[in-house]
Structure formats: structure tokens, C-alpha cells
């Protein structure tokens, strides 16, 4: 198994979509504390604005000054804009491509533009072929596109996403099996912070690494759900201390607050502390 380097270099608790045809939104996105940004040339941009949006995104990328990685969601292969989008992203220093409606591994390998690919799984075929897609070396992660997926499956809206749970878990399973990052879908109602927070907690419980977001107000709650609190960091340190004492005594298990712990618990605690060290104060707020 080969793990793409970009899948492991930093946490992606929040990944903000920004329309490429909105210069003010592009400029504001620089000032926000999202872990990463997706400059969108696809669904958020009408056909008559595609060329102008590509120019805006190119200028934004070349200007630099972004606090985290910047990805470009290109138009899908076979569209009139795909080739120009991909070449612009490559030449302008994008950290990766977000490729919409990926349904098989061939779609990714045919792209071959030299950038990490974040494959959007938003069709039934994409879910069924997610393991093969995640196995492609150039794929850094899988993103769920729940709106298109729900439409294709003919599901009804559900506050706990019950009709989509199988598909969501399938994406997580495929990504994790190949050492890639699974990112959860956007939450459409920006006026419903409670619903958004609940969906973030659900996504974290399902195994997602972070949440794609569409509004600045969603960044903080995503960080809270996918980050580490000071209390969690302190507990992780205590677990590692107990484990270290046990190993020093030649034991293969230890007791921590009445529960048995072993190597996997120590590994999990180490991951928690690593996330805490990278995100620091932002995870506590």
C-alpha cells in the first residue's frame, strides 16, 4: 500500500469551498482559519462565467499568502473546461485537484497532471468503486458529495442521514483501508448551527477526518468536532504515561482508571496528542 504524502502532513478538520467567480469571497477566504480551501470552478460557477472564474483562481493562487493548502475543484473530465482547469491548477501552484463525480479508478489515472487528487464520491457507482479509487497512488483522499448522491439514490431527507449511512461508511472504509483521508459532505443549511454541529459529531463518529464547509461560521464548529480539547489531550498524556510505566515493568497490558489498555490504546493516545500539537489553541475554541 502506498500512502500519498499529502494525506498525512496536516489535519483537515475544515475544508472551505469558495466560488471561483466571486473575487471578494476569494479575498476573504485568505483571512479565515479553515484548515484548507477549495477554490471551486465546477458546480458553484455558471457556464458563462467559467473562463473568468479560472482567471480569478489563477490570480488567487499566484498571489499566495494562504494560511493552508489550496485545492481547485475542476470541471469533470469530458467537459469543455476540464483540460484548461487542470493545466491552470498545475501551473499556478495548487496543492491538489478536487475531481467531481469520480466513478472509477480510470478517471483518476487518465487525468495524470502531476497533482494529488481528492476524488469526490457522489454517485452510486463511485461508492461501489471507492476501494479501487482510493487505491490509486495519486489519490490523497475521498470527499463525499452527499447532495448528488442522495439525488441519484432517490433518498428522502433525514436529519440523521439514515438513508446515506451505508454509503458514508463505505467511503470511510475505502479511504482508511488505503491510508487516505475521508472528508464528510457539506451541510446545506447555514442557518442551522445545531444541525451542523450534530452532523459534524456524527461524521467524526463514523470515522471521517474532517468536514467540507460552505460558510465561515461553520469552520469553528468543525474544528471543535474534529479537533482535540485540552481535557482530551491531558487524558491522552495520562494514558501514555500509564502505558510507559507498564512497558517499563515488562507488562503487555496496563490498567488506566479501571480499564485495561494495550498498544492500540497507546497508539490512539499518541494520535490525539499529535493532533493537539499541530492544532493547539484553535482546537480548544
From TrEMBL:
InterPro entries: Aldolase/citrate-lyase_domain (IPR005000), Citrate_lyase_beta/mcl1/mcl2 (IPR011206), Pyrv/PenolPyrv_kinase-like_dom (IPR015813), Pyrv_kinase-like_dom_sf (IPR040442)
Molecular function (Gene Ontology), one example: lyase activity
Domain HpcH/HpaI aldolase/citrate lyase: 13-216
Superkingdom as given in the UniProt entry: Bacteria
Signal sequence coordinates: none
Record keywords, A-Z: Lyase, Magnesium, Metal-binding
Cofactor: Mg(2+)
Pfam family, one: HpcH_HpaI
Protein name: CoA ester lyase
Amino acid at each position: 500500500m502506498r500512502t500519498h504524502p499529502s494525506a498525512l502532513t496536516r489535519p483537515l478538520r475544515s475544508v472551505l469551498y469558495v466560488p471561483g467567480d466571486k473575487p471578494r469571497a476569494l479575498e476573504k477566504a485568505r483571512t479565515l482559519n479553515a484548515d484548507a480551501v477549495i477554490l471551486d470552478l465546477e458546480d458553484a460557477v455558471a457556464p458563462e462565467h467559467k473562463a473568468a472564474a479560472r482567471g480569478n483562481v489563477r490570480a488567487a493562487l499566484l498571489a499566495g499568502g494562504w494560511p493552508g493548502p489550496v485545492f481547485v475543484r475542476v470541471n469533470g473530465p469530458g467537459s469543455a473546461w476540464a483540460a484548461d482547469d487542470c493545466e491552470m491548477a498545475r501551473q499556478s501552484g495548487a496543492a491538489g485537484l478536487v475531481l467531481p463525480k469520480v466513478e472509477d479508478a480510470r478517471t483518476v489515472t487518465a487525468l495524470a497532471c502531476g497533482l494529488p487528487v481528492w476524488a469526490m464520491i457522489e454517485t452510486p457507482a463511485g461508492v461501489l468503486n471507492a476501494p479501487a479509487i482510493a487505491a490509486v497512488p495519486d489519490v490523497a483522499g475521498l470527499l463525499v458529495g452527499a447532495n448528488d448522491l442522495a439525488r441519484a439514490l432517490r433518498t428522502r431527507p433525514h436529519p440523521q442521514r439514515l438513508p446515506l449511512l451505508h454509503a458514508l461508511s463505505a467511503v470511510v472504509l475505502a479511504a482508511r483501508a488505503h491510508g487516505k483521508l475521508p472528508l464528510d459532505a457539506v451541510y446545506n443549511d447555514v442557518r442551522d448551527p445545531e444541525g451542523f454541529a450534530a452532523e459534524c459529531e456524527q461524521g467524526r463518529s463514523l470515522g471521517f477526518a474532517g468536514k467540507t464547509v460552505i460558510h465561515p461560521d461553520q469552520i469553528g464548529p468543525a474544528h471543535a468536532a474534529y479537533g482535540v480539547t485540552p481535557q482530551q489531550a491531558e487524558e491522552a498524556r495520562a494514558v501514555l504515561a500509564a502505558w510507559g510505566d507498564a512497558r517499563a515493568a515488562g507488562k503487555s497490558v496496563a490498567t488506566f482508571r479501571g480499564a485495561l489498555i494495550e498498544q492500540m490504546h497507546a497508539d490512539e493516545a499518541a494520535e490525539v496528542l499529535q493532533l493537539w500539537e499541530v492544532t493547539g489553541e484553535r482546537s480548544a475554541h
